[in-house]
User: What shape does this take?
Amino acid sequence: MNIYALMYIPVIELSLDIDSFMDELDRHISTTGILTYLSERGTETWDITRKGEKLFLGTNSSQNSRFKAILSRTIKNSQIVSIILRSFTPERDPTSGFPVKELRGYLLSVENDHLKWYMIDAEDLMESHNTDSLSGDKLEPEQSVIYCGPNNRCIDSSGREILTVTIAPSRVK
Assistant: This one.
């Protein structure tokens, strides 16, 4: 008897609407970004690049569907998945010379067989980003970082609210 035949367990697939979350990411990437997610199974990081109207996760467009499948499977197998999106802006920090980055945080879960995602507010994101996860000690805020939350409300590394202006990416075909 084939031992693998005994181990077959049917899997019921949940259909998660990852596209709604992808639309959210699309709104916040003008050129490039880095997406990192953390689940019970560990972390994974993906580069994001905008080319015209399309976002590319990984090295080419064929990886977009792979990313969606991996994220969907990760969400289904975890209680909650946290995501940090670093969007690189064309602006440069005058002190460091580094590109200014906008950070956004999200919590994703499955509720009643549907994907639910929530954006973390700017103050909580800044607090967690600048706290050592092992010791709980405060860390020096990273230069050239803007923390953004719901309703495009953003704060700088000193906690002051700032005005952000989003310039739509070029829609060259």
